[in-house]
Design goal:
Length: about 220
């Protein structure tokens, strides 16, 4: 998938879907991926506590990456919340055919920020995130913070996908071996994305220690 005409069609279909009335807002947000209840109400955060028992280093590395992302997303949350629309947790460029009648209907509808759907589509091969956001902006102008959030939320999509697998593992009884390969792959991918975007590590955000006054 690629080309300006295809991107424009995706943006147009998405903007039209976002204008439709949707379900009641249950407060779920892609930006709060770590707190989203999943298998047996397990969340990514609680599953990481369970993962820390057999794999403390992996759990810690994934948590540190999530904190980096959250620190960057948090300042944008107020602006994002001003633009709530009907989103689709199952949204995929592979299944979202803007020429079909089904494009008007979300498979797993819920209320979220419009940047969340733009981010979901931008994670698929052949879809350029900035180009998609620009095409959408021409139809329904986005705030500067929303443009910035699309790339960050695309990282959150990676965490969101891993969360389903990791919470299923945590909820299983008896519990199988942890999905180490998936966790490790997610860490490598999101660290690379965050580094490319210049998102600082936690240690880089901490203020320097105070000097003790000379006695």
């Amino acid at each position: 998938m690629g080309g300006s005409s295809t991107i424009g069609s995706l943006a147009t279909a998405l903007a039209e879907r976002h204008s439709q009335p949707g379900p009641a807002d249950d407060g779920l947000r892609l930006s709060a991926y770590a707190e989203w209840p999943r298998h047996d109400d397990w969340t990514l955060r609680s599953a990481l506590v369970r993962l820390a028992q057999p794999e403390p280093l992996l759990s810690g590395a994934l948590l540190e990456s999530a904190r980096r992302l959250d620190a960057a997303l948090h300042p944008l949350s107020r602006t994002l919340e001003r633009h709530l629309v009907v989103c689709d947790r199952a949204l995929s460029a592979a299944t979202f055919d803007p020429t079909s009648v089904e494009a008007a209907t979300a498979a797993l509808p819920y209320v979220d920020t419009r940047a969340a759907d733009l981010a979901r589509l931008s994670t698929h091969a052949g879809v350029d995130g900035p180009e998609l956001a620009a095409a959408y902006h021409d139809l329904d102008p986005l705030d500067d913070e929303e443009h910035e959030a699309v790339g960050l939320l695309a990282v959150a999509v990676g965490f969101d996908r891993l969360s389903d697998e990791l919470t299923a593992w945590a909820a299983a009884d008896p519990r199988p071996e942890p999905p180490i390969t998936s966790v490790d792959a997610t860490i490598r991918r999101v660290v690379g994305q965050l580094d490319t975007m210049g998102i600082p590590h936690e240690a880089d955000r901490r203020p320097p220690p105070r000097r003790r006054a000379a006695s």
